[in-house]
Design brief:
The chain has about 350 residues and is an alpha/beta fold. It has 2 domains: about 180 residues, Rossmann fold, CATH 3.40.50; about 160 residues, 3-Layer(aba) Sandwich (Rossmann fold), CATH 3.40.50. Helix content is about 40%, strand content about 15%.
Length: about 350
């Protein structure tokens, strides 16, 4: 075994940091550290804005803090400063997202170090971005593809897009979901008022591109089927308006974001059907996690979701379509979907598989 200081130095840049508290990139960084810290010397850049208690290391990885946020406009400076700091020691950069890639042309004037970029879907296509932000993200994507040593995508539809637009071959590496373990029913009584009944569930950020309005509209017309949506309702006028509109429906339960993994997994593990409304972003970690928990999935009908589920889920196009799919949903359909989704997850969405794909690029 090599001495620790002889191991190849990897800098993971662009996540909020570790321990994971936010989303897909943090879960990715967490599992790479858990799986690969024996093979590589890993450093993870963290936003001190969200960590009051700052550890110097985590599961064998060094943690480096910057006093900036890892999202919004600050993410550009956060990523750029992380990259320049990592130049002092790193052999390989793993850059998560394209915000900091604007600096790549300058970086390449004096450094030939290996830069791997996970472009995280087509970020510029999300509804939340204004025209100027969209132009910036498109430019960042172009520079990432041009100047990176290797480009990582998480969905074959994005792989096809990059090949068609830029003529560049990419590495398809998805997300794992097997870090989650099912939680038995007795552990989740009283998490929400209808515990114990069959219910549909969706866990997501409350944004238009996740089709929350479509899902709520469908279930407002099915008064005997409970729906639970867990999300950040107060973060936008979109979320606040929807909560005000649907809070009085007896079968609809709009819960604030749950950050305790055990409690969230209890809700997920015991739902009758999982509704996935995402229409953007490639392979969504929340969908992979639902599949790994053997949940029957009804997903919004876009190519990304069909690719993730290999065309074996049920898909809806609008609220009327979803309402009909729910009304016709039965235990036989649930059993088939559960079996299909878990088989795909075991074959494709395991962290040991994902980590070794990253290791081969490192």
């Amino acid at each position: 075994m090599h001495n620790k200081y002889q191991l190849k130095q990897i800098a993971i840049i662009g996540s909020h940091g570790l321990p994971p508290r936010y989303g897909g990139f943090e879960t990715l960084a967490d599992n790479l550290v858990k799986k690969l810290s024996i093979e590589f010397s890993l450093s993870v850049y963290c936003s001190s804005k969200i960590y009051e208690h700052r550890e110097s290391s985590y599961n064998g990885a060094k943690l480096i803090y910057l006093p900036l946020r890892a999202n919004g406009i600050q993410s550009i400076i956060y990523d750029v400063l992380s990259i320049f700091h990592a130049l002092r020691y790193a052999d390989v950069f793993l850059v998560l997202g394209v915000s900091g890639c604007i600096i790549f042309p300058l970086l390449r004037l004096f450094s030939k170090k290996k830069i791997l970029v996970n472009i995280d879907g087509l970020e510029w296509s999300r509804d939340k971005w204004s025209g100027i932000a969209r132009i910036f993200l498109k430019l960042s994507e172009r520079l990432a593809v041009r100047y990176a040593s290797a480009v990582i995508v998480d969905n074959e539809e994005i792989q096809n897009y990059i090949a068609g637009k830029y003529g560049v071959a990419t590495h398809l590496i998805e997300y794992g979901g097997d870090h989650l373990k099912p939680v038995s029913g007795e552990d989740f009584i009283n998490v929400f008022p209808s515990s114990g009944k069959m219910y549909a569930l969706s866990v997501c950020r409350i944004e238009p591109e996740n089709n929350i309005h479509t899902i709520l509209n469908a279930f407002s017309k099915i008064d005997d089927f409970p729906l639970v949506i867990v999300g950040n309702w107060n973060n936008s006028s979109y979320g606040r308006d929807l909560r005000a509109e649907y809070r009085d429906y007896k079968n609809i339960f709009l819960l604030d974001a749950i950050y305790e993994e055990h409690k969230l997994n209890a809700l997920r593990s015991n739902c009758y059907v999982y509704i996935h409304g995402h229409s953007a972003g490639g392979t969504n970690p929340s969908l992979v996690e639902a599949m790994s928990l053997k949940l029957p999935v009804i997903a919004y009908d876009v190519s990304y979701n069909r690719a993730t589920t290999e065309g074996k889920a049920i898909y809806f196009k609008d609220s009327e379509d979803l309402m009909l799919k729910i009304k016709n949903f039965d235990s036989q359909t649930a059993a088939r979907l559960s079996s299909d989704m878990s088989e795909i997850a075991r074959r494709r969405y395991r962290w040991d598989i994902i980590a070794q794909k990253y290791a081969s690029l490192f």
